């Protein structure tokens, strides 16, 4: 592979990763103000919070089943 093709490939991958990070920043509350390192930590916390919410809603739905 030629050097310029490798450079182009790296540039494309960097761009793709950047796009994915920006998409993630839009999904996570407060994510737009975070750098990628802090964003990933916030994502982990957000996932745990969502799991807790799901568990609570599942428990409540079991209580109110007819």
From TrEMBL:
Superkingdom, taxonomy of origin: Eukaryota
Alphabetical list of InterPro entries matching this protein: HLH_DNA-bd_sf (IPR036638), IBH1-like (IPR044660)
Keywords: Transcription, Transcription regulation
GO molecular function, one term: protein dimerization activity
One record GO biological process: regulation of DNA-templated transcription
Listed name of the protein: Uncharacterized protein
Organism whose genome encodes this protein: Stephania yunnanensis
Upper lineage: Eukaryota, Viridiplantae, Streptophyta, Embryophyta, Tracheophyta
């Amino acid at each position: 592979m030629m050097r310029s093709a490798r450079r182009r490939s790296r540039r494309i991958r960097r761009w793709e990763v950047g796009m994915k990070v920006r998409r993630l920043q839009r999904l996570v509350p407060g994510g737009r103000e975070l750098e990628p390192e802090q964003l990933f930590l916030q994502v982990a916390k957000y996932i745990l919070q969502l799991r807790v919410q799901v568990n609570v809603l599942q428990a409540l739905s079991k209580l109110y089943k007819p």
